Amino acid sequence: MKERERIILIDGSGYIFRAYYAIGRLSNSKGVPTNAVYGFVNMLMKVLEDEKPTKLAIMFDTAKPSFRKEIYDDYKANRQKPPEDLIPQFDLIQEVVDCFGIRQMSLEGFEADDVIATVSTKAEQEGFRVEIITGDKDLMQLVTDNTTLYDTMKTKRIGAAEVFEKFQVRPDQVVDVLALMGDASDNIPGVAGVGPKTAAELIAAFGSLQGIYENLDKIKQEKRRLVLTEQKPQAFLSQKLATVHRNVPLTYDWEELNYRGPHRDKLESFFKRMEFSGLLKRFGMAEKQEALGGSKYETVATLERLRSVLGELSKEPLVAVDTETTSLQIHQAQLVGISLCARSGQAYYLPIGHYLFGEPTERVAGQLPEKESKAILKPFFESPDIAKVGQNLKYDIQILKKWGIELQGMRADTLIESYLLDPDEPHGLDALAMKHLGHKNISYEDVTGSGKGQISFAEVGLEKATQYAAEDADVTLRLHEKMGPLIAASPMRELYESVEVPLVGVLAQMEFHGILVDEPCLKRMSSDLEGDMAVTEKQIYSLAGETFNIQSPKQLSKILFEKLGLPVVKKTKTGVSTDESVLMELRSKHAICDAIVRFRELGKLRSTYVEGLLSQIQPSTHRVHSNFNQAVAATGRLSSSNPNLQNIPIGVDPKYEIRSVFIAPSGATLLSADYSQIELRLLADMSNDKELIRAFQNDEDVHAFTGKLIFGTPTVTPEQRRIAKTINFGVVYGQTPYGLSQTLGISPHQAKEFIDTYFARYSGVQRALRDLAEEARKVGFASTRLGRRRFIPEINSQNRMRREMAERTAINTPLQGTAADLIKVAMVRIDARIRREALKSRMILQVHDELVFEVAGGEESKVESLVRTEMESAMPLKVPLKVDVGFGANWQSAK
């Protein structure tokens, strides 16, 4: 039997919204929003590439409401209007569909679902096989042996079996299930109290909605029978609303659905107008000036040529700099070469450390002598008047410093530019080149190979190395030419130029210097932890009455729930849960639970922190050199990695305070400076709440102050203060009554009363938080005091959970982000003063709201005064900034 020809029908309206929320804020240079268009095109191209359709149509809703609005005025009444930046993209999306040569179908008074239902039904009747591209569960009612759904976002195909798995009924019964359970997204009322499970059971038992009402007397549950009887009109109304219309009066023939490919000229013109460089490249349409193909890259092999090149570059307004090395670990890396570029398409590679056959002593001929070239390069790199740009310059600064050169004149960093423009997007050079230039960079593996056969960059031939390294510098300059003007024209210009760019150098110096570690102490701690774990292990075996593998969830589960008979608290896909929350809940029922928690804590301390730190100590410095990541957290906060010093546990066990192993060298001491309640002070300033401002201006204990307001008492107990403190910080993070109830161990009702009382006492705070969420809803992003933006596309999501999470982000970002900006300002100012005053002391750590310094002997009072002054004056607020300062021989004692 001949196989049916396939027709693909795409739910275009559903695609638009999925594309809009999937892609962060995006616009072309004229300010036209393009994120939904870009996402839609990529989704559409995936269908074309993967499915290779011969017949194809896309269905859209129209601006005019459908017939369902006439039947039920509240239909989709809870739907918010499309975001303002999405509205102009509707026409652009229909335009690009035309450019692709795809038949569009819509009709006023009907929804895209109705048009899809009409075409699919007719197509099946005429012998076609139909595939509907959609994520809409309502269209499951169309599934038959010859009509399937395909959700490309989840790569899931849906036939009758998958419909049954979802609804527990046949596809032709789905609409009756929807009629009973209703649909909150479309505001279809359904029958009160009937959820998906009950609806499926009723339809399975009686066959249809009509069957239920013909057999009401057979429903045993009196309450359910009564509700169904009372809400019969509502149930059948819901059925009408949920049923797709299969007879939309459309005019078309099947030949119109033949797909012959895109109109390339129209598509190229559209992509250029939208500035979709990556898509132009993907279609082989990239503009010549973006292709890098005509670039000229030179290997500088003589000192004479090096002097000439540097003379030329020093006259240029900006020079892109990039280094090539043997390792990403600064203190293990050796400099191999340097690339420079001041004009697009013209870059230079300076080979310095290439060698033959894996032997560093066998230098490659035709490269620059290290000692002499360094002497020539030093004044060029150390001149503050020769402006430099780089991609992740923090790395290059340290490599050059290790080589004996202090990089000066840093003006821009494309990594930071990308991070500020869209913090949630990738910021790597390859990703940025593709996004902004439509260019695929030569990959590292292209020149070094991969796997076991991979060679060091030092072993790469000079010709290959030149093409790879010079391209990096060329691409970096071109990216700055794209992103630099966007930063300059944005409210983030001052933040970028005065805070983020100078901070790159500050962080580079902190990473390079590192922090000294008491290695013998760490090793003793590891041994002690091993001993304590052995003792705890024996205790667990004694309480269990047998030995078993404590690390095995299956064996532990058998001991706890079968042998000891403890109640099951939580189940997972793989069995009964034995996680920490379960053990904490069961601790009052058996002593073994506390012992297991203790065993796990000791094990984590030893493996993650003690052994982890030991592996990170650099033998040449006896220090750890953490990476301070400037372009990771969307809030603007710095993060730490290799090792993560922001995650060091505090107060787990007095014997094992990990911070105590970070020490000052002989003749020095550590200083810890920590902002006091910074986010609450920012909340007071931002909200202009008189009560909260008064508390800070009078230097009161703000948690006790809040407790007095909430509980209406002149004094508070320690427990009341604890509750007030939890609420204070919970409000900053947009905590819900449920979240607060879990934290405090109280009922959600009581938690809601606490929050309501809090807002009644701090009315300015409630108004400010509401305004923050509303502003983000209007503009699509949240801003810090210094103009940093975090885009929040889901702030207008139809999904309630996603929308509420986005609202919490909109509230938290201005506070946490401003706190991040504040400490960065302080860091830049402190570093500048330390340099200006020629102090020997150094800033070595930043952890959340805390800065740690290695203070040289005799400079204690000067550094304390300097640090306190700069931190407390970093940003003008309506309330005073307060910094707690402490000295100690180690980080723990300085706290």
Structure description:
The chain is of the alpha/beta class and 895 residues long. The chain is 49% helix and 12% strand. It contains 35 helices and 24 strands. Strands 3-2-1-4-5-6 form a 6-stranded mixed sheet, with helices on both faces. Strands 7-10-9-8-11-12 form a 6-stranded mixed sheet, with helices on both faces. α2 runs parallel beside α4, α24 (580-586) packs antiparallel against α25 (591-616) and α30 (737-744) crosses α31 (748-761). The termini are far apart. Residues 287-291 have low confidence and may be disordered.
Rg of Cα set: 33 Å
| Class from secondary-structure proportions | alpha/beta
Counting DSSP E segments of at least 2 residues, the number of strands comes to: 24
Number of helices: 35
Uncertain residue ranges: 287-291
* Average pLDDT reading: 88
* Sheet of most strands: 6 strands, mixed
Apparent shape: globular
Strand order of the largest sheet: 3-2-1-4-5-6
- What fraction strand? 5-15%
Span between termini: 80 Å
Binned, the helix content reads 40-55%
